[in-house]
Design brief:
Layout lengths: L14 E12 L12 E12 L6 E15 L2 E5 L4 E5 L6 E20 L9 E21 L3 E5 L6 E11 L2 E8 L19 E11 L1
Antiparallel strand pairs: 1-2, 1-11, 2-3, 3-6, 4-5, 6-7, 7-8, 7-9, 9-10, 10-11
């Protein structure tokens, strides 16, 4: 948002953001499938740091929070030593199987936009990297014969991914491509097919001035 200043070109694009995305995975085993609508919601603030006199190119550093919900046919079971990933079938007759994560996000962006001090609506391309720290995880399973909640899932607590946001004014497409493994490899030694599984999120992000 253009901010008042003694200089006619001294303005920043500090922004709050709200994002909603569809959660999916790359490099997943063939037997793994998702159902319902796995989703991500994230909110936060980006500090704008212009790098040129026109202030249409710069970087952004932010802090945010993300909530993720994953629905699928893979049940996480805690064993005495590690974790087991069990593929569910229709015969299992389950009504709910999903994973929930809460994380703190640290986005870093390289920012290009067509903004001016007079214009509040402009085109933008923001690309960069985002680090996420998972501070809470749990799996919920419900069937006719079992109701269970498992906490501290075998997921990598620190995750990294590439981000791209393209759009105009408030409305922007959002893409996140995970470059770190979603699962903690040492905790699922019997499931090497999941060791390279990473996240892919596609959705919308709204920048609020």
């Amino acid at each position: 948002m253009a901010q008042e200043s003694d200089s006619p070109i001294d303005y920043l694009e500090d922004q709050f953001y709200l994002g909603v995305s569809y959660n999916s995975f790359n490099n997943k085993p063939d037997e793994f499938s998702q159902n319902k609508f796995p989703y991500n919601i994230n909110v936060g603030f980006i500090r704008d740091i212009p790098l040129n006199i026109n202030r249409n190119f710069g970087i952004g550093v932010g802090l945010g929070y993300a909530f993720n919900n994953y629905f699928g046919n893979t049940k996480i079971v805690k064993t005495s030593d590690n974790f087991e990933l069990t593929t569910l079938t229709n015969e299992d007759n389950y009504s709910k199987n999903h994973w929930i994560t809460h994380s703190i996000e640290l986005p870093f962006q390289i920012r290009w936009r067509t903004s001016t001090i007079e214009s509040y609506k402009f085109w933008r391309i923001y690309t960069g990297i985002k680090a996420s720290y998972l501070f809470s995880t749990r799996a919920i399973f419900r069937s006719a014969s079992e109701k269970s909640t498992l906490r501290s899932l075998p997921l990598e607590k620190l995750q990294w991914g590439l981000t791209t946001h393209i759009g105009h004014s408030t409305w922007n497409l959002s893409l996140y491509f995970g470059i770190s493994s979603f699962f903690e490899k040492k905790s699922i030694p019997n499931h090497p097919f999941f060791h390279k599984t990473n996240e892919l999120k596609l959705g919308l992000i709204f920048y609020i001035f």
